[in-house]
């Protein structure tokens, strides 16, 4: 049986774990759910897509959740003390500001499910690059995909308009 965690004390002792580029630390990775502490600031430009819902609770400070809803780019502000349930299969980019902390709860991925990281062209908004993977540990698996996109100009170049997205 797991013991309760004093979250304010945990943050005080472990804030160094919430560092870029992903800024998260897995608190629990159990049979049905993964619970992550997530800090800011971050500078991610990718949109994450997973087949299951994600629950956001903003413990300290505000965050912005950029989403693509039926092809339309939208911003959802999640303020300190607020929570939000994101439906599955919605591309999203969590923007976290300096000195902010949140909790994200995700369901374990079904055996045949795929998570995706997607980048949209900064100019024409078409998909520039997308990579799929079966998610086991998001905190570990996102970093190499983000770094690969940042380091390879060909991956950042839009095939529709020729624009080269920024690396970060």
Task: Describe the structure in your own words.
The termini are far apart. The relative contact order is 0.20. The chain has about 170 residues and is of the alpha+beta class. The chain has a 5-stranded antiparallel sheet with strand order 1-2-9-4-7, with no helix packed on it. Strands 3-10-11 form a 3-stranded antiparallel sheet, covered by helices on one side. It has a 3-stranded antiparallel sheet with strand order 6-5-8, with no helix packed on it. Helix content is about 15%, strand content about 40%.
Task: Summarize the SSE layout with pairings.
Blueprint: H1 7-14, E1 24-29, E2 33-39, E3 47-49, E4 54-60, E5 63-69, E6 72-78, E7 83-86, E8 92-96, E9 101-107, E10 115-120, E11 127-133, H2 138-151, H3 153-156
Antiparallel strand pairs: 1-2, 2-9, 3-10, 4-7, 4-9, 5-6, 5-8, 10-11
